[in-house]
Specification:
Number of domains: 1
Number of helices: 2
Low-confidence stretches: 10-16
Order of helices and strands: HEEEEEEEEEEH
Structural class: alpha+beta
Radius of gyration: 16 Å
Strand order of the largest sheet: 1-3-4-6-7-8-9-10
């Protein structure tokens, strides 16, 4: 946990790499719940799953708690249930052929399966105009739609880059 927080601080002060906003998707609908803590006022959180589908074939899947900033933007809570899977994608007819593995998680699986690659086919509806890959993506009955209101996508891009380098170095 301390390592992740230190990583986030380092990433926030380092120069950011660009993350194309047309590559972001989020599960829909989000189920918001009010969380009350003795040390802070109640805040609404939702468990979210974000896909980063880069045009070059790279893929990242982020899972974790989300909340809204004062400006209404979605913010990832990197300290609560955050996990990151990394892999590749390519078009396969009416589907996306995807291969991913977990490279960072605040909760490791006891059976070690998070280090194994998973291969799946995702269905999608191609985007009609513009640079975005899909209007919607369907993964095992869960709908993903374009994400347009993520707070600080460049910090997310840096964290993805850092975790990928760390995973590569630990091989």
């Amino acid at each position: 946990m301390k390592r992740l927080l230190l990583t986030i601080i380092v990433l926030l002060i380092s120069p950011a790499s660009a993350l194309d906003s047309t590559s972001l998707y989020i599960n829909d609908p989000l189920k918001w719940e009010l969380v009350r803590r003795p040390d802070r006022p109640g805040k609404k959180f939702a468990l979210g799953h974000i896909l980063v589908i880069s045009p070059n074939g790279d893929l990242a899947e982020i899972s974790g708690s989300l909340y809204r900033t004062d400006k209404g933007l979605l913010q990832i809570s990197y300290s609560e249930g955050f996990s990151l899977s990394s892999g590749t994608w390519e078009k396969a007819g009416q589907h996306l052929s995807v291969r991913t593995r977990t490279i960072h998680s605040s909760a490791k699986r006891l059976d070690g399966t998070d280090q194994q690659y998973k291969e799946m086919l995702w269905s999608y509806v191609p985007f009609r105009k513009g640079d975005r890959l899909a209007e919607r993506i369907n993964i095992s009955g869960v709908r993903y739609i374009p994400l347009r209101n993520l707070n600080d996508p460049n910090a997310l891009a840096e964290l993805i880059r850092f975790c990928r380098k760390e995973a590569e170095a630990s091989k």
